[in-house]
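Appendix B, Record 12. Input sequence as logged:
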Amino acid sequence: MKIIHTADWHIGKIIYGEYMLDDQRYILTQFLNYLKEEPVDALVISGDVYDRAVSPAEAINLLNETLSKIVLELKIPTIIISGNHDSAERLEFLNGILSGMNLHIEGVLKNEVKKVTFNDEYGPINFYLLPYVDFLKARNLFSMNFQNKTEVILKYIENMNIDEKERNVLVAHEYVAGGEESESERMLSIGGSEYIEPSIFEIFDYVALGHLHRPQSIVEHKICYPGSLLKYSFSEISHEKGMNLVDLKEKGNVNIQKVSFKVKRDMRVIKGFFKEVMEKEPTSDYLHVILEDENVVVDGMNKLRSRFPNVLSLEYPNSKTNTNVKSLERDLKKTSPDELFEIFFKEVKGRDLNPEEKKIVKNVFETVIKEGSDEAWNR
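Logged structural output:
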């Protein structure tokens, strides 16, 4: 049985104020084209299909359109669980819309784990659908004082009554110890209570995980994160995004192939002095620009965007401004406006105001403050 394992679509994601829906639609179109050209037996989406619990209408429409084509047109059996970003109740509602069409969604965490069984020439394959496990909710569901997430997941596994002679797949959205994080994932907890020991998954033939955005295997060909379809932070620029094509043959025989897509706009970091950067080839990619100039470029972001329209962030690691700002510890409420202007002037121009300039600045602020007070009094 050939299965597509994907996760962390985060439809409706906003990065640095940039709405990613256009990029997501572009990648999902390629995803659908792949499914049309390379028939598979099932699709597994391991959580975080949405980026927010209450998603905008455009994000909901994009997911509905995509699932309709997969389930109704291509007739691919599809399994979806909720992640920590999804609204479990809203996601499970889709079951009603496409019920009876081999769409299996498990959004709300329950005592029991939903089991879905498919068959191929080697016999049955059992999929166990475990949505994101909220630690406190699990304690209440079982009325047990679990100490960590490993204990919770073990309890669920014990309740599955797994037949070890058959092929078994766990679909989950969790942080398994040994996984490598990136900046775009939402922290599940402070400390290590949410980390799950990989050894508890020994009974499964394949563990289809979601949550971590870097494609990786905790145990090769067994416990896998396919990663997100797109790069969602500059910490992910080296990631090769895509999905896993999992070929489950007879018991104990699992092969995994990485499938990648061409993105509409890549996410990259460019570095250099301002003049050098401005001479680089124009691009529509999402950029983090690191300028090595010591002095801050006046209106630098807008100047960069005149050549690179999708500059999302700008950094001056060597600038005096950067050093001064980091080392400056002062109570701004106790600093007069003219003193604040002096600080700003020095950071931008690289020198102090001379006595005559200080006098002019002080007079200007005193006039502005007086006029403001008179206006307020006249009201």
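Residues 323-333, 373-379 have pLDDT under 50 and may be disordered.
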